[in-house]
Amino acid sequence: MRVLKPVAAVVAAVLVALLGALVLRVGPAGAAAADFGVVNDWGSGYQGQFTITNNTPARTSSWRVEFDLPAGSRVEQAWNAQQTTSGTHYTFTNLSWNGTLEPAGTASFGFTVTGSGRPTGCTVNGAACAGGATPSPTRTPTATPTRTPSPTASPTASPTASPTASPTASPAGTPVARYGQLRVCGTTMCDRTGARVQLQGISSMWLNWQSQPYAENLSALTWMRDNWRLEVFRAAMGVEPGGAYLSDPARARAQVETIIKNAVTAGVYVIVDYHAHEAQNNTAAAVAFFSDLAQRYGHLPNVIWEPYNEPLQVDWVSVLKPYHQAVLAGIRRHDPDNIAVLGTPTWSQDVDKAAASPVAGTNLMYTLHFYSCTHTTGLRAKADAALRLGLPLFVTEWGASHADGGLDGRICEPEAQAWIDWMRTNSISWTAWKLDVGNDTTNLLAPGAPVTGGWSNHLHGHAPFVVASMRD
């Protein structure tokens, strides 16, 4: 839509290879320990991370990490910790939600640095990390990584964490239990048996702007699955506006991860949507975000990645294709097989341009968005041309309204039905815009709709048409 083991008191250096990065493990025995690593390095700067581990037998209520950077290097941005700076000395303390650590519990924070200097003189909770200055690390040779493009702005992303444990099987009878691991076959998707699948579901509102936390409610999700026959839910994580991911990454990530976990519990598919219009201007942030989530959730059959919601009128070959290649490299390091849906130019309408020069890789689909009062036969013709060239499509957003989401309240149902019929004929999966309360035609819920579901008497705008289309 527009608009972180104990170690001896003697210094120990741990060598970790990640994008040719260095990792130092530091911390006195029997206390907290802090691991430092470079997650991403673009030459003129890098993204660093500290993971703090409680090595005591008791719960701790807070942590503090301090270090220095050499002249010429400075921290630009930080997340998941409170930062204070005095000259070249940096102090990071826990936030309200990540200070309490059970025995062996961990917490992490990340930051971006301008310059190549690595932290020295590190302490954790006031104890010298290595009994003095941090030793110079030794670089370990690694396989040549895929280099992330230099960002035009410092990336804001959360740190990489250990993969989560594999979940239990999806509940019997649920979409994921029924279809299993999805893959691209021809211009559509197939289930684990090779049968064609057309997923139908809805999208959240921009998570940073939703009126209530409808998207994060498990009861609401299971209600939609059972009553609307929803099979897929799209988590539209706003990226650029104030209060969205780049300015409040901890909150945004928490929302997305809640939705992923709910989808696993409910046995439905979930689209992780990087809801941006200018993501190519901060590619490193997107690479870090998707690399981390892919490492921790890429083993789930539920997850579908959408690295870029709606690019503006920018060139496919010189701008969008390199962006997608960079983000996909981050995803595929950890998740080799889940489907990724790639945004296309002009608010994800110019699928023909992507079809003329598709991104190399497997299980890739391309985004098509329509609003039926604005987009009619001309856009379908463009989509048909892309299909003839073999481009797999996924309509991750649509509405029976004008392209502004229906500010005038109008519903163009006959043309919306033409689109529904076209998607059914071509087995194109879709998610309709959007789960929220408001006056716009595309707000699915009426005022008073409870957060937990039970919305049969709270449908608004194009909701009756959307629900009927899911049930059909």
TrEMBL record:
<keyword id="KW-0326">Glycosidase</keyword>
<feature type="domain" description="CBM2">
    <location>
        <begin position="25"/>
        <end position="132"/>
    </location>
</feature>
<keyword id="KW-0378">Hydrolase</keyword>
<dbReference type="InterPro" id="IPR001919">
    <property type="entry name" value="CBD2"/>
</dbReference>
<dbReference type="GO" id="GO:0008810">
    <property type="term" value="F:cellulase activity"/>
</dbReference>
<dbReference type="InterPro" id="IPR017853">
    <property type="entry name" value="GH"/>
</dbReference>
<dbReference type="Pfam" id="PF00553">
    <property type="entry name" value="CBM_2"/>
</dbReference>
<dbReference type="GO" id="GO:0030245">
    <property type="term" value="P:cellulose catabolic process"/>
</dbReference>
<dbReference type="InterPro" id="IPR001547">
    <property type="entry name" value="Glyco_hydro_5"/>
</dbReference>
<dbReference type="GO" id="GO:0030247">
    <property type="term" value="F:polysaccharide binding"/>
</dbReference>
<keyword id="KW-0624">Polysaccharide degradation</keyword>
<dbReference type="InterPro" id="IPR008965">
    <property type="entry name" value="CBM2/CBM3_carb-bd_dom_sf"/>
</dbReference>
<dbReference type="Pfam" id="PF00150">
    <property type="entry name" value="Cellulase"/>
</dbReference>
<feature type="region of interest" description="Disordered">
    <location>
        <begin position="130"/>
        <end position="175"/>
    </location>
</feature>
<keyword id="KW-0136">Cellulose degradation</keyword>
<dbReference type="InterPro" id="IPR012291">
    <property type="entry name" value="CBM2_carb-bd_dom_sf"/>
</dbReference>
<keyword id="KW-0732">Signal</keyword>
<keyword id="KW-0119">Carbohydrate metabolism</keyword>
<protein>
    <recommendedName>
        <fullName>Endoglucanase</fullName>
        <ecNumber>3.2.1.4</ecNumber>
    </recommendedName>
</protein>
<comment type="similarity">
    <text>Belongs to the glycosyl hydrolase 5 (cellulase A) family.</text>
</comment>
<feature type="signal peptide">
    <location>
        <begin position="1"/>
        <end position="31"/>
    </location>
</feature>
